[in-house]
Amino acid sequence: MPTIKDVALKAGVSVTTVSRVLNNRGYLSEELKKKVYDTMEELNYRPNELARSLSRSKSNIIGLIIPFVSHPFFGELTSHIEGHAYRNGYKLLLCNSQLDKLKEFEYIDMLRSSRVDGIIMGSHTLEVEAYRQIHLPLVTFDRQISPEIPYVCSDNYRGGALATGLLADKGCRKLAHIGVHPHLNLLSHQRYVAFRDVAEQRGIWHTSLHTDVNGFKLEEYEALLEQLFLEHPDIDGIFASSDILAAYALKACQDSGRRVPEDVRIIGYDGIAQRKLQNPLISTIRQPIEEISKRAVELIIEQMQGKAVASEHILPVELEEGATT
């Protein structure tokens, strides 16, 4: 594998000159830069990004820690974050924590050692002090870790109110909410709070079922819905806190002979692209996933530039009615 010394020797310049070309430091003629880059191409030389970051104040890399990259919502979120980061001159280092405390701790340590310019957190399993000790620009998604750490989320309460209000307006009189366990301390818990508030305001009977603390285990969803229909066979409206949960609710209705929306009306949350593959099309509360991703990247860059940033960034949601309500 060619080294920077090989490039310098082939181009007839010093190693320092090659380094200055790579880091764009000092005055360099276009002719000289072209000569060095042509030599790099001829030798198939690839700079070591980590080594370069150690010699300058920026690595142009942003770390992203998410719970499950296989989850469609986080897959879309990651894609948009990477796109916005790249358009701003940054690359993304992706970490899949699986809500494992040890993995999350090790990933944070790795990102700090790699001299990333900032970290976007979609996972939160450690104590607050662990995040305060990162000493890097930090942004969280759908998690409020502490007042000094900015977060980005959709308007979860408004979304829950829209979803529950739609079910009530359609005539549902026995409602169920299905979501992740409140012990996860996610801002998305506000979806359930709104569900409860609207149902009580409308005088509608309601219940709620939660997955265990690890709220992204898809295999739990079928058992959860089986339990719901066993305990409450006359449920006629379901608000699922994600489109994936809504898809499982639709499947459970179809498997048990319940017609949707005639017998049971279903609405999800997220607005993921995969939802459009469902038949019938699932009604949903659409999060502005691309805008959330863009804002998270912007907040990292603004902190790097020394700008003061607000701690709270709540973006609006939209009701998109499909065929399940």
TL;DR of this structure?
This protein is α/β, with parallel strands linked by helices. The chain is built from twelve helices and twelve strands.
Strand order of the largest sheet: 2-1-3-4-5-11
CA-atom Rg in angstroms: 25 Å
- How would you sum up the global shape? elongated
How widely separated are the two ends? Answer: 61 Å
CATH H level, superfamily name of the largest domain: Response regulator
Task: Please name the CATH topology of the largest domain.
Answer: Rossmann fold
Number of helices: 12
Structural class of the helices, strands and pairings? alpha/beta
Give the second-level CATH assignment, the architecture of the largest domain: 3-Layer(aba) Sandwich
**Strand count, sense and closure of the main sheet?**
6 strands, parallel
Measured as a percent range, the helix fraction is 40-55%
Number of strand elements: 12
CATH class of the largest domain: Alpha Beta
GO molecular function, one term: DNA-binding transcription factor activity
InterPro entries: HTH_LacI, LacI/GalR-like_sensor, Lambda_DNA-bd_dom_sf, Peripla_BP_I
Protein name: LacI family DNA-binding transcriptional regulator
Pfam families: LacI, Peripla_BP_3
Topology, please?
Layout: H1 4-11, H2 15-23, H3 30-43, H4 49-54, E1 61-66, H5 72-87, E2 91-96, H6 101-113, E3 118-121, H7 128-132, E4 138-141, E5 151-154, H8 156-169, E6 174-179, H9 189-202, E7 205-210, H10 219-231, E8 237-240, H11 243-255, E9 265-270, E10 283-286, H12 289-304, E11 312-315, E12 318-320
Parallel strand pairs: 1-2, 1-3, 3-4, 4-5, 5-11, 6-7, 6-8, 8-9, 9-10
Antiparallel strand pairs: 10-12
